[in-house]
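User: My collaborator sent over this chain with a note saying "see what the structure looks like." That's all I know about it. Can you take a look?
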Amino acid sequence: MLNGQKGCKDFSMAIDQASSAQGRNMLPGSALEMQRGLRHPDRLQRASLLRAIRNDPDRALCVGQGDGWDIVDELIFLCEESKGTADRWDYVFTTLSLADERTVDLTKNEFLTTFDHRFLVMSARRLSQLPEAEKAGFFSPVIMESRETNRCRLCANVLAGSDLLETRVAIRVAAIADRPASVPALDADTLDAWVAELQGPYPQKVRKKLLQASADAVNILLSFWNRLPEPVRVWALLQGVEQGTAIYASRVKETIKREKEGELLRTALMCLKKMPPEHHDEALLEPMYGHGDPTIRAAAIAAGSVEIDCSSLLRHERSEIVRLAVIDRLERFKGTHYIDLVASLLEDNRWRVRARAVDLLVKLAPASLDVLRSLLSSTVEETRVAAIQALLRLDKDDWIAAALL
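Assistant: Without extra context I'll predict from the sequence alone. Here is the result:
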């Protein structure tokens, strides 16, 4: 144990022993003695008195008044005077243990300014005893404006269960509180608040809470499509892809028709790929095979399900992600007539393309075996290596050995 830690432990044990020995009798009998004790030069004596005050705060309040001196005013002053010192914890802890309205302002200031988790928890516990309206008025701005997770979580735990919260505050409280809290239903009146929180500092928690609150949440969002910002539209499309409702399918197709570029269009294309084949429309996709953005070209090619002329797509295509998308599209074709086209991709200078082509040729075996065997004599080293990798996976070690002799 470090010397500093040992010293703190010994000091704490000394206080405990002194408190145990003297108990309630440690409280002085007059305000003057109380005042002297709080300013005693011996830290152990001061700490023992503070412990006694916390053990019997009601009696301390009775004793600690007289001759123009008041224990609450004195402790509040000591809290300010002791900032940055080792004594401050004891002073604040003791002050907040007193059931006096004058400690409320100190408690609020501690909650707003401290970075010490002990003070935060202690302040929150004390402020949780305030009237409901005052709690809502104090904690609501904090939870909406602060970016400190611990402070906001404590706010949420205090406010959970309150019926006096604005919609956005109620959503955020329900999302981050450790205690159960009611959440406003998603409808035309609460939509703006939900949209704001879905883009706020806790988007993942708010999304989870929204989905838990209503099994129909995604469809409700989609019904307000024109009021949704793009990030929320993207999330709603991605979230709803498994549901496959009529409104969902129409939103996906409508987006593909209207959008010319960007994340929303890419997302709609990715969602279309995951939807049942009856929702696919090649006429929607074909114009995008020549799109200027390779990510859009790739998403459009990958989304289709019908057989197309992939050789023409590959002829002048240099983008890696698009060539990978073509391989994905080829894999969905029935038959083996495109084996030569896939084999030609083993000459690609991008290893990901070659690796994906190897995967597909292995799946196409035994129809692909003759082509792979012929590639063992290729003049292109990368092609030979790729063919060897495929044949090894197909247990054709003897073919490889013969070719290498």
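A starting point for your reply to your collaborator: The radius of gyration is 35 Å.
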